[in-house]
Design brief:
The complex is a heterodimer of chains A (about 260) and B (about 375). Helix content of chain A is about 35%, strand content about 25%. Chain A has 9 helices and 12 strands. Chain A has a 6-stranded mixed sheet with strand order 6-9-10-3-11-12, sandwiched between helices. In chain A, strand 11 and strand 12 form a beta hairpin. The longest helix of chain A is centred in the last third of the chain and has 16 residues, at about 180-195. With about 375 residues, chain B is mostly helical. Chain B has one domain: Orthogonal Bundle (ABC transporter involved in vitamin B12 uptake, BtuC), CATH 1.10.3470. Chain B is built from 19 helices and 4 strands. In chain B, the strands form 2 sheets. Chain B has a two-stranded antiparallel sheet. In chain B, strands 2-3 form a two-stranded antiparallel sheet. Chain B is globular. Chain B starts with a helix and ends with a helix. Classes of the chains: A alpha/beta (about 260), B mainly alpha (about 375).
Chain lengths: ~260, ~375
């Protein structure tokens, strides 16, 4: 197998007396979807924030393409090719899709001393990148606010991939979406994987994870409970791992089905 | 599902059911949008519609002199003076901030300009530079306080509304030895080549030529009734064009919209939000300085009441022009038309039998209607339901 793009070894993160992460190891291969599962408070957010440069780990090492890296800021992580699509998306609803797509990295053309935003080129690229992701825009000028939640996620993902992300961290991209939109986002992840990008998919929904995941890592109380490959583990087993087994089993029995 | 996906064979190669779903949902319920609903989404629509209504109103009620060339220049001049402020206010509002101090800034920079020439005897060229630098410095101060403290710009600039007005009074008294009016500015700049750009009329030879050819009205002596376009109007047009170009065609336009739309998301995407807001505050202050220079040179004197309440009128014009109070949306061309509405009503009422004080009633009503209208438009744009 190829070597991982990002490898995190024995990451610990302490906030004062609280140990948020107690030695988590995690890696992302090119072209895989690695699901990071865990219940609320398991440390998923802390972990990906460490990966994306928001937090500095208290202990442990981060390797990118085999090189040891220390991220001082999210910008460092971005420069190493680690892009995060946050739940709040970093999108501006009143602005057009094209302007959002290129925000902060607008293509400019020069006309004498004056440089202007190359709308034609920007629109073309946006349309093309979006259709690669399976969304045919009726016009790139439409405001992002008119898109559904799933489509907005897709714009954010397409943007990150277009600007050279090697690893894409998706923080609960499906948590606020309906069934169909969730399917759209999962299929977008599949397309991104086929481009050779490593995807870190954070979720607490086992079924979403099983639909696209190549590997699954479960976090519980700041520790990894192990990493399993696709086919090695069933949805029920994952669910049990996430919630800590016993209690959930009895709860499920009383509710009459898998939660 | 099959019918739709069959036409998109590239998607099929991946054999992914989910992508079929995506394609279908993107296409099936999308109506072709008409030109009208496209226009409905432009922020300046309200202002253009308003201008059309006001024009029709005055065509029926006002003396026909109002729409002669002389009449148009008559209402365009105050419109231009307000409009220069309104364009600054509009850009700042799109960037998500307010400046309530622009009216006082006009008085303050008027004082700086007058004092530079009369008290310190600077040439016009230097006086103009000093005035713009003072304005930019005050704008930067406003901006820095807002950015660093995170206080609402409403409060910070409200404070400067009073501070600058007070400073203008105190400064005028110091410069004149007790009066609140500084006179004798005209003789200081008379004969300066630069004065042509900031006072009087432009294109005078053209208008004489037009009069000779019989294209425009003349006095009995053969002199044209309008012997040029007041420079205020030229500045106003230029500024509207440049501001619109910046908003729609340059990358800075995107940054301004983004800073006002969601400053967090904007800085996450790498937009230098603080810088953008700083420059907008400075630009707005410089617009006030330009109005000060134009009006002071026109009057030949400056006084402490200059620009009184103009901040509100400028903001109202910007709102009529489609700017949202919450930022992130609006247009400079809208503020342009909004200001013309103002000038038209202010001057137009004197061509009718209507009591001129209805102007204030009109002002308030326009603001209210515009805000309601803008909310509706925003919902259309974002597809909110």
């Amino acid at each position: 197998m190829t070597s991982p793009i990002v490898e995190m070894k024995n990451i610990e993160k302490h906030f004062g007396s609280v140990i948020a992460l107690a030695g988590v190891s995690f890696s992302v291969m090119p072209g895989e979807v690695h699901c990071l599962l865990g219940d609320n408070g398991a440390g998923k957010s802390t972990f990906i924030k460490t990966m994306s440069g928001v937090h500095k780990p208290s202990k442990g090492e981060i390797f990118v393409d085999g090189q040891k890296q220390v991220f001082e800021s999210p910008r460092d992580a971005m420069n190493s090719g680690i892009a995060t699509v946050h739940q709040d998306l970093a999108m501006i609803p009143l602005m057009s899709i094209t302007r959002n797509f290129w925000l902060g990295r607008e293509p400019v053309k020069k006309f004498g001393p004056i440089s202007y935003f190359d709308h034609k080129y920007a629109n073309e690229v946006t349309m093309e990148e979006m259709s690669k992701m399976g969304i045919n825009l009726r016009e790139p000028d439409q405001a992002v606010g008119t898109l559904s939640g799933g489509e907005r996620q897709t714009v954010a993902i397409a943007r990150a991939v277009y600007f050279g992300a090697k690893v894409l961290i998706l923080d609960e991209p499906t948590s606020a979406l309906g069934v169909r939109q969730t399917s759209n986002v999962l299929s977008t992840m599949d397309k991104v994987r086929k481009k050779g990008v490593g995807v870190v998919f954070i979720s607490h929904n086992v079924r979403h994870a099983m639909a696209v995941g190549d590997r699954f890592t479960v976090l519980n109380r700041g520790k990894t409970l192990g990493t399993a490959k696709k086919g090695e583990i069933t949805a029920e087993e994952l669910q049990d791992l996430m919630a800590g087994g016993q209690e959930l089993a009895s709860l499920e029995a009383s509710l009459g089905g898998t939660v | 599902m099959g019918g739709v996906s069959a036409s998109l064979s590239s998607m099929q190669t991946e054999g992914n059911k989910m992508s079929d779903l995506a394609v279908e949902s993107a296409d099936e319920r999308v109506k072709k949008i008409s030109l009208i609903s496209r226009l409905m989404k432009r922020p300046e629509l309200g202002a253009i519609a308003g201008l059309a209504l006001v024009t029709i109103f005055f065509l029926f009620t006002a003396d026909s002199k109002m729409f002669t060339l002389a009449g148009i220049m008559n209402f365009m001049t105050p419109a231009a003076q307000l409009g220069i402020l309104a364009i600054g206010a509009a850009l700042l509002m799109i960037g998500g901030e307010f400046d309530l101090s622009v009216g006082s800034m006009v008085a303050f920079t008027g004082l700086i300009f007058g004092a530079a020439m009369v008290t310190f005897d600077l040439p016009l060229f230097a006086a103009i530079i000093v005035t713009f630098m003072a304005a930019a410095a005050m704008g930067a101060l406003n901006g820095q306080i807002v950015i660093r403290t995170g206080l609402p710009s409403f409060i910070v600039t409200l404070a400067f509304l009073f501070i600058l007005r007070g400073l203008s009074l105190v400064g005028l008294k110091a410069a004149t030895g007790g009066s609140t009016q500084l006179r004798g500015i005209r003789q200081e700049f008379e004969g300066s080549w630069l004065a042509e750009f900031f006072s009087g009329e432009a294109f005078t030879p053209l208008f004489y030529w037009l009069a000779e050819s019989g294209w425009i009205d003349t006095f009995k002596s053969g002199k044209p009734k309008v012997d040029g376009i007041p420079v205020d109007i030229i500045w106003f047009l230029l500024l509207a064009l440049v501001a619109t170009w910046v908003l729609l065609r340059s990358r800075y336009g995107s940054w301004i919209f983004a800073a006002g739309g969601d400053s967090n998301a904007a800085s996450n995407s790498g937009v230098p939000v603080r810088k953008v807001k700083m420059y907008l505050f400075m630009f707005t202050a410089c617009c006030a300085a330009l109005v000060a220079i134009l009006t002071v040179m026109d009057a030949g004197s400056t006084d402490a009441r200059r620009g009184f309440q103009k901040e509100f009128e400028a903001i109202i014009a910007a709102v009529i022009g489609g700017c949202l109070l919450t930022g992130g949306y609006g247009s400079a061309i809208g503020a342009f038309f909004g200001s013309i509405i103002f000038g038209m009503v202010l001057i137009g009422l004197s061509y009718t039998n209507i009591d001129q004080d209805w102007y204030l009633v009109f002002l308030g009503s326009m603001l209210l209607i515009a805000v309601l209208f803008n909310n509706m438009i925003r919902k259309r744009v974002t597809g909110e339901r």
